[in-house]
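Input (Nucleoside kinase):
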Amino acid sequence: MRPTNKQPLFIITGASCVGKSTLCEKLFRNETEYIVMESDLLWNDMYNTPEDDYCAYRRLWMRMCANISQIGKPVVLCGCAVPKQFEYQPERELFSDIYYLAVVCDDAVLEKRMRIGRKVDDEGWIKSSIDFNNWLKQNANDTSPCITLLDTTDLSPVKAAERVDKWITKKLILCLEKS
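Output:
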């Protein structure tokens, strides 16, 4: 089955423990105009291929999201990703647009969320999460397309979810105006 109803795809990204899963859980519980999916759902070690930017995993999710969207609602995919992992795949043509939002926060807050909230004590994991968090903040305007940033340092999960919902709604209106 080849998807024919092109919808936009929304990617919510961010470092481990930055709050994206909590935020997406809030979106999931309140969704009406879109379908929220957690990308970790299909993770398997066979997709652990950083040498090709997790190509098979991204392509799998793009096909999955395109097929889900056939009901007439776009998918919001939550997980750790960057635009280049989606934009150059053959499945890119299955979507009218792809929008990216990165959940970020201050380094000290991220480290606290990891150590206290998730009980992470792996220094390598903490460092890589902080590094990715900083990469997103420093490079969001240089990716193609650009990544919208949402700083959750001082936001509750409910407020963060409200802001993301407004961002999605605004993008959906833009898509309707373009068509």
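Strands lie at 7-14, 35-38, 75-78, 95-104, 147-151.
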